[in-house]
Structures are given as structure tokens and as C-alpha cells.
Amino acid sequence: MNKPSTTLVFSVALNGYQWRYSHCIKSQKQYAKKMNYQYVVVSRPIFTSLGVECCWLKLLLLKAALEAGYSKVLFVDADAFIQPTCPPVEQLITDDKYLYMAHGYSGEINSGVMLMQESQSSLDWLNDVLSSICTPVAESEGIGWGENGHVAHFAKTWQGFQLISPKWNNTYAKEMSDYIRHFNFGPLKNSWSDKIVHKVIFKVSKILLKCDLNDLSQQEKKLQVVQHKLPKLFNQVVRIYPEFSK
After folding, report:
1. What CATH architecture does domain 7-244 belong to?
2. What average pLDDT is seen over the chain?
3. Distance CA 112, CA 164 (A)
4. CA distance 69 to 39
5. What are the residue boundaries of the structural domains of the chain, listed by start?
6. With bands split at pLDDT 50, 70 and 90, how would you rate the model's confidence at 214?
7. Do residues 54 and 146 make contact, with C-beta atoms less than 8 angstroms apart?
8. Helix (H) or strand (E) holding 119
9. Which of these ranges, 61-65, 90-94, 138-142, 226-230, has the smallest mean pLDDT?
10. Hey, which end of the chain has fewer CB within 10 Å, N or C?
11. Does this model's pTM top 0.85?
């Protein structure tokens, strides 16, 4: 009998993403099966009062997965398609590096694909990011929402971070022979249906959070709401998905 894999691949697909990007989620599941990795897509609760800010959940789940005993954890955004030719994540691992990410189309580090390797240093780094949720960072300017700015800010100064090829998180080049094609809010997201879906999601998020996601003067208020609501969502998800429990 084969032992369960110590590598986990997971995605967070809430607030309609589980349906809009079902083809991407299917590709992730197929990749994990091919590589004999564990795979989880967090698709419940179906809707959350955090709106688009539920993306912060990935950091708590990354930490929980490492604490649950996984040696390597690959997070992939729900709108990222893993190509059949994608190699195993072990290809990326180097000595003394524990977090692997690529630059996105903006030139900033993109947290839509994150590979983390188990270590106390990894857990300490995640704790640093999570404890600073309410502190706005310069890297969030131009993004206006989500955890990406904080992840980029803290990764740049951490010796355990390794920048990887954009083939692992292609957000901008249609002609690239990539491993993971990420249809985030960039050059590759050009269909009218995607634009409509995102406009609706952002409008609903603005109402739920009672602040404008693109207004920098309201960033601290928004982050306080995230910090208040995130633990409840995390606890709910862990009860549903035992893969994130010890």
C-alpha cells in the first residue's frame, strides 16, 4: 500500500470562483494525481463576507498544512491552469530556501503560486506576515486588495525566499511555453465574461467590507475588518477540510 504523499497542492475557490474556474481546478487536480501529491480545493463555505479579501486565507492554510506534517505545500490560485507538461515541484527545491514565487505582469512578486517547504523558518515568516495584517505596505499600492502586497514586502527581505521562473506563474505572455498559466487580473484575463464576473465580485466586496478597495486612505480600515473576520473563516474551513489539521 502506497504511503500518503507529504506534498500538498491546494487552492481556495470561494465566492463563485469554484464555478467560473472549474477548468483550472480540474487541471490542478490532474497534476496532483499525476505527481502523486495530495490535492484539496477549498470551495466551502460557498460565499464569505470577506469577499475578495478571503485570499488572505491561503496564508493561514499554508501554515496549518506545514504544521499538519506536509513537507512541501504548493498553493495555486483558482484561476491558474497547470499544464500537462508541468514538472514536479521538487525541481525547484534548493538548499536553505523555503518559499518560491515568481514575478507577475506588474513586475512585483505574485502570490498566486506559492511553494513552501517545511521548516521553523517558514512558520516564523508566515507568523510575521499574519501579525502585520493591519499595517499597510507600499507594495499594496496599485493592487488595492488582498495579501499580495504583504507577501511581496516580507519575501523581499527574507533569506529563505527564492525567485523562480515566470514559467511557474505566467500572468502576462500568451506565447510563453509555461508550466502554470495564471488568468489573474492582468493581460491574460481578457474575456468579457471574466471582466463582468470580477466587476460584480469587487462591487459586492466593497459593500461587504464597507470600504473602497482602491482607496488607499481606507486600507487600514479594510485590513482591520480582515483581521477580525479571518480567524472565523479559517476555523470553519479547517472543520470542513481535515487535511489542514494535525
Report:
1. Alpha-Beta Complex (3.90)
2. 89
3. 13
4. 15
5. 7-244
6. low
7. no
8. none
9. 138-142
10. N
11. yes
Instruction: Please count the other Cβ atoms lying within 10 Å of the Cβ belonging to residue 97.
Output: 19
Question: With 0-12 CB in 10 A as exposed, 13-18 as middle and 19+ as buried, what is 198?
Answer: middle
Between CA 73 and CA 126 the distance in angstroms is 13
Q: Render pLDDT for 40-76 as a digit per residue (tens, 0 to 9).
A: 999 999 999 888 889 999 999 999 999 999 999 999 9
Instruction: List, in order, residues 6 or more apart from 199 with CB less than 8 Å away.
Output: none
| Eight-class DSSP state of 139 | G
pLDDT above 70 for 195: no
φ, ψ for residue 190, nearest 5 deg: -125, 5
Task: Classify the C-alpha dihedral 164-165-171-172 as positive or negative.
Answer: positive
Residue 152 has pLDDT above 90, yes or no: yes
Contact 160, 123 (CB under 8 A): no
The position carrying cell 512558520 is 123
